[in-house]
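Forgive a beginner's question, but would it be possible to get a protein, spelled out as residues, together with the matching structure tokens, please?
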Amino acid sequence: MESSEEEELSEAPGASTGPEMREKDSSENFRGSLIQPECERTESEARMESSEDKDSSDAPCSAFGPEKNKKDSSRYDKRIRPVKITVSNISSESLSLQWDTPADEVESFTVTCSTEGETDQQVTTDTISVTLSNLKPAVCYSLHVSAQLRDGRQSRPATTTAETTREGLNQTECETTEGEARLKRSEKKELADAPEASLVSEKRGEDSSENDNQKSPEDSQGLNSDPNSCVHPPESGTQSKAASMSESAVTDSLKQTECERTESEARIESSKEKELADAPEASLVSEKRGEDSSENDSVSSPDQKSPEDSQGLNSDPNSCVDPPESGTKSKAASMSESAETHLESFLEDLGLEQFYTQKLSLSKILQIDKKTTDDQPAKCKSDLPWYFLKKLMMVNVTARNVKYTSDSKSGVSGKTGLNLKNLVSRLKSANMLNPLDIITALFLCSDGFVQQELALKMSMCQFSVPLLLPDCDKNQSTLMVRALRDIVKKYRPKSLSESKGFIEDRIVVSELPMISFVRLGECSLSKSEILNKLLSSSQQYHDTFVHHNMDCGDSPRRISNGLTEITWYLPCGNENIDIFSHPVALANLRGDMASFQTQFSFLCQTSAAVFVFFDNLDPECELLTNLNSKSEIFLVGNHQSRNFSLDALEQVATEMSLTDENIILKTTDINEADFVKRLREAVTHVVEKTKKKMRIEQMAEVALKLGILVDEDSPEYQSGKKKADAITAEIRDILKYKEDQLPLQGQIWKDLTSLEKEEVRLRKVGSENIEKYKSDLQLKKKKLRQKQNTSGISKAMTSFISAISSNTLERGFFLKWMRINLDDMSRVKLSELREQYKDKCKNSENNEEIKEIDQQISNSSLGTEHFFREMGQIYEASLALEKPHPSHQQLNHLPKLGAQLLLDGFPLELVDGDASNIPLSWVSDVLSQLSDLVGSKNRILVVTVLGVQSTGKSTLLNTMFGVQFAVSSGRCTRGAFMLLIRIDEELQKELKCDFMMIIDTEGLKSPELTQLDNSYEHDNELATLVVGLSDITIINIAMENSTEMKDILQIVVHAFLRMKEVGKKPQCYFVHQNVSDVSAHDKNLRDRKLLFQQLNEMTQAAAKMEKKEQNKSFTDVMAYDPDTGNCYIPGLWTGNPPMAPVNTGYSEAVYELKKNIIQLLRNRDSPVNKVLEFKEWMTSLWNAVKHENFLFSFRNSLVADAYMRLCTEFNKWEWEFKKEMYNWVTNAETKISNIGTLAAQSKISDLTQFHSQLKTEAVTVMSVWETKLLDNVTQYFKQTDGHVYLVVGHKEEFENSARSLRNQTERSVLDQLQAAVDIKQGMAEIDRIKENHTKEIEKAASELIEKCRKRNVQMNDEELDEEFNKMWNETVSKLTFKQQHVTNVFENVSCHLRVNLAHRGSYAHEILNKTRLEDCGKKNFKYKAAQFFNKMTDTILNVIPVQTHTKAAQENADCIIKTCEKLVNNKQSQKSNYHNNYIEEVLKTIDQHLEQNQDLKEDTHFEVSLKLHICGFTARKFQKMHEDFLEENDPYRCLNKYKAKFCSDFKDVFHKRDQCQKKAEEFVNKCLKPAVEDFINRYLGLSIVDEMLKKQEFSTRVSFQYYILLDLLSRQAFDDYLSFTSSYQSFVKKWILKKIKEHFSSSSKTSEFEKQPSSPSSSKISELENQHLETNVSRINEAIEKAKTQNRGNVQTFVEDICKDLGDKLTISQEALGAFMILNNADQDKFAHYLTISVKELKKTLTERFHKTSFEDKLQYLHIQPGGELFKRVIGCGKQCPFCAVPCEAGGEAHAQHRASLHRPDGLRRYRWRKTDKLSTDICSSSVESENRFRCSQTKNEWHPYKNYRDIFPDWDIFSDGSLEASDYWKYIMTKYNDDFAKEYNAEPADIPETWREITSQQAEESLKKSFNVNVK
């Protein structure tokens, strides 16, 4: 009934606000309190009035109403959320208030108590509670609480009303809301006349202390009272008069207690019976949520009320209705408007409202968030379900302790002193929620998978689990069959005790008798607590059922009434321990069975017996007397209860035909232990004699007949079940089924695995050709794959693939049913086989049969992993087809399905445990699809567990992360499984990852494998793989087995050592199982030290085996702290299974471990892998572990990419340093050349002093750059991007390379400075002579001009020429010309050569003495091998004939000779004087080349002969260069060179002609132009190198190798390959020169320095020339302008200023400058003008010349030859593989180990077989894995195993091929040019393996990309 605000206010003067007021101010949403505790009502609840009290003005509280509040409401801040008031401890003269704290910062609270409109009391307090005293009895008070905030604002007052009791009435917890109406007490007669009064529960409010003044907990909560009336207890013990409502209303409504109402509920008015009967839809008012929440009876007094009574046990959860006589519901009070349902309200309190429709998923509850590892207790109601889930998923038996702690402090009285009532009120759990409500809510809000997980974990904790789940809003229950399907129990009944057998079965299909326990009416016995004692032994008590005395067990239940729980007692077979010797199920109905007749009927029809707990039986109770049940009924009563009536019991028992055996009474002379014993006896008797056993899944039929829903009835569930059943129904014999339906994973897959490993291990190759052997293995693999494809896809797999392709929900149910069915079948099969095994073992003669059964046990496991494994094999087989069959196209979507399953939380098999292999293509494609599905959220952290088999690894992971790896009997994990868990977005930021991948592995030291020879190898493979994939590896150790612990530690140490060496550093955590002592950490200090000592010893042993002896301690391998890296975990169970719950200590220890692991992940240094990077790690690790030598088989693209990045960066820094130092040296040489001249900038004129200054400066500059390089290296390794941590092992190498570079550069720079100084000193005397001679000529010419002018005769040019010639001859004849000393370069070179060869001993000295250097180098060099082979035994000729060795040596010699010729020619082109450094440079070049060929290096005769030859022609050329230089700089010659120029100047001066233009042109052409050209020649080479380094080809040595091989493949010219393999360095130099020419000869679109577009002939090199030209022209013009400002007055000083300004960059010829200054009378201004014009002309002239000069001519004059500089960069150390001669690609100059990405057949190096003379096809990257042997000069021609090649060549790392396709490039080339190479090498063509012939050019190119890890854009 709706009314206006005014009507409501007038009808209910005791109410402070009404519904309309709420609508106006929605923030005022506080609740008052009901008479029952925790029964809250909102301000908009309806008020119930007495039907006789028509005039509301008579109400005692009528003076207070909302109108008074309105007067001063303006002073309140509506933004402040009002508080909620709870009233308690109401007596006749006092009451207590408690309220919530607003969100804002509160200073104080003001509490006002009013009556009759007048303020009675006002209290100010800073607490959240207060007790008001000195009140009047039986008066209704209005109570206001407002908050005063620190900022001055004040909240609107929260208001409620409360009525004090009459004097003498000790009623407590009498709370009411502000909107409630007062109910007056009616007459006893009126109540007695009410129909159906026998079951009215008003008596619960009586004063139960009549006998002994003790109050039960129920009494304290007013259990019999209506929520809307304050009913007073009668004095005589009879019922008191109720509030004056109509009889019908009393009958239909007043019996419901603990009734909460929501804000939107309508007012229920009392009316006549007819009015109530007409009210529609009143039956769903859910006021009774407080029923029977505790069933928890800690009652000692006979007159105490039961805890069940305290929660309204007789009420239905969904309606305020009496139990009807006929089974129909009575009509309830009407509602004035639609109400918010109780379930919705409760779910809102828990924050679960959204999940009621969109159910909680497993991925949601397993998601890792901050709360996962947060120890903060629950702080509000919405935290409780997540707190429960967090605990439950870790199987913590304290999960049901669901209290929360409010932030506000406990309230205390505003008054000081003693206040016991307030103290008691503070101790009550007023705001706590009952655990059963939370469990019910979670089951209602979870999907089927979560329900199964919850039930399973609860069962492990030995909690009761829901059997019938109520939904109070729908008044409907659901039978939880599906939820219980996952529960599997093992037990040993009495019948199997002697045989020690056991039964293991799924609980829903176990035929067990069920005993049910219900309650009728009120009961002072706590049924649930008694049940717990019934199931617990005297030594160990466990709370299976929630009861009153548990945490929050006494809190009113709101939604869980009608819940039926079930648990099981399962015997262990020990009579001294077992309570029941037979298994039995026990069910417990929550609430009064009278209110839940449907559930009661269900239990009667499914149970063997029903035990009915009661206090008082109504003889007219038809619920029992009319019961027609096949179940045996037991009545359990408390004779001590004051309500107990023996007569009533007798009458009911008689009507039910019960005997004394069916009656169990607790009397005063029976204590609780005897009472429980009597119950046990009754239950035992029923269990032993009953034949009524029913499976839970059979109960579905009963449920459906009674209208109870069954959770398995969803269409998706049934569809998934149907599909799973269709597959598993075909299974009769597991072994045969696997052979027929899953054939691909059988022997074929195992054979493929063996072939894959043999391909890389080559253990059976024998004397056969390795590559042919490998080719044959590939063909066998191909045939096996063809065999797989021909078998087709089986019927079962077709159905399986179809089923998992359905929608997500149906797929989930399908896989769940598949797992259930398959586990059940395997369990049965394994049980049979175990029995057979046991029988056979009795006779020792049955060894063969025992072995066969043992094998059957291993093969009888069948799970979903086998179907997925088959699916992977089908997918892999289809990929092997060259032309995929159309039927296989449907398989393309399978990897995406696998990825989706991973995302959904299903484990995916990573390592096939049966075949010990990974289907790489399948798993890789699944991970690729996973990466696509998650998009950018693709970062994963990996946690793995390793340990001995059956030490609880899977259980540990399941407990830690709440997941469900298989742990059932006979299902030990085989191989490894990966499972994905999401990480909450907030935690993603801290961990920097999006998912956590959990990897569960099979146990190491498996008994099934230990009998095999390769078990240790298998364990090593698995350990290495998972450790390599992990960010954290948990090492699970069972402390009691020290031998196995030592074995596993050895395996683990190997794995960690390997990871350290390949650049990955996972962390480890040692978990010690079964250590329960609290002092374990301290007590085990000695054990930890011993463990650490063992780890160190094993590290040393492992390092020796892996040939990495530098690792001496375990901490060298990884960061490990013995004190913090260990965790001690107690045993899993508390007590004896199967009835033992999980040990709380176990759960808590695992929780601590989880926190530590999350913290370790949070603090880690290394970056997180992305999914695709994880895939790459998996692939490379597995490929490597298949090899015998892991460390030298590991090839990982991530590592290769990281190394490439490092090399690229270091090369950039290296080039910057070199370029900087070249510029510095060039400038220094210029300054040295200009010192003592007009262009000199330095104030120091002494050359020695200046040289010293430059050396100091050079060392300083290089030191700065060295520091910069080292800092760059350090900073590079500090970054987190680019997987830098993977190459941190190379840090020292590159630091050493930086230091080495500085040392080499320093030597070179100082040598160049010395050479420049020496040359300058050598020219000093000549320059002085030239200068003096020039001055003499100028003096004589000046005198002649004066003489001629004095004649006053006009002279013509002929006459002047004659006079000048005469003067010249006379003057020159007077000058002295010193004879220049000519150095004997041959002697100088010979001296250096002897020093160079001194280490070669007397043989070299003898050759030198016999040979004249002057005679050497005139003819072509011819190598003679006689001397070399005289030292060798003829055995070496097996592989390399004399002619072959001779030809190779000759080619090397020719290459060295050409290199030296270029070097000498370059020196000659510079036209400088000879210096000792030049011959040192030549000898150093020869030595570098010889170092790269050890055979030639060891041939002393070859080395001496070659050096004599080269030094011969070198000395000859240097002698000529020296003599040419002396001639060019001869003073007399230089003076005569300028005679014509002096004569011309003489005539100009005599005739007083204007010399400005002429002199300007002369200065530009003779002084500036040569200087500019020299500058360009000095710097152009540097610019060319700079430009070329921008190309990818020259970024690193690896890139260079890739591009040069790719270029060769594109041109496919045999001559090129021949040159590349035979004369590598020579070919590389030509190739580099060709690339430079190609790059710089290409036409550019525009010329940067020309106004007009460039001509077609312009090129990039011209652009570089123009850049340098433009720079110099600009500098010259700036110098001219600057000189103009000096106003020196003459040209000489003007030019001097220009020269000084240009002196730091340009070397101006002093000879030309001196000649320019002679007889110069030009005007400065005019000279400057013409000089500017001449400079422009200079630019034009040089630009034109640049365009016309050929590229080769330009390179000829460059000081730095770009080809040579690039060659040094890409050739690196120059070392070549000792077997196949591929060049080393390692970065840096100081790398310790040489390595190459791609090796080639040694036949390309002229190796052949002695007997057949056929070229060899062996590839050293395969040979090093084989049992083959080799011999060479280094082995002293003794045979040596390839596997131990490092003994001979310790500085070479020859990695095994990363894949079989890795060497396809060279296999293709050798196949294509087999005949050509054979002809060239005078050998027979090689026997090409069959598979080589199938390789195409495209495949060859692909192999290049894979081998060099180059991603070509």
Q: What stands out?
A: The longest strand covers residues 106-115. DSSP finds 65 helices and 32 strands in the chain. The radius of gyration is 51 Å.
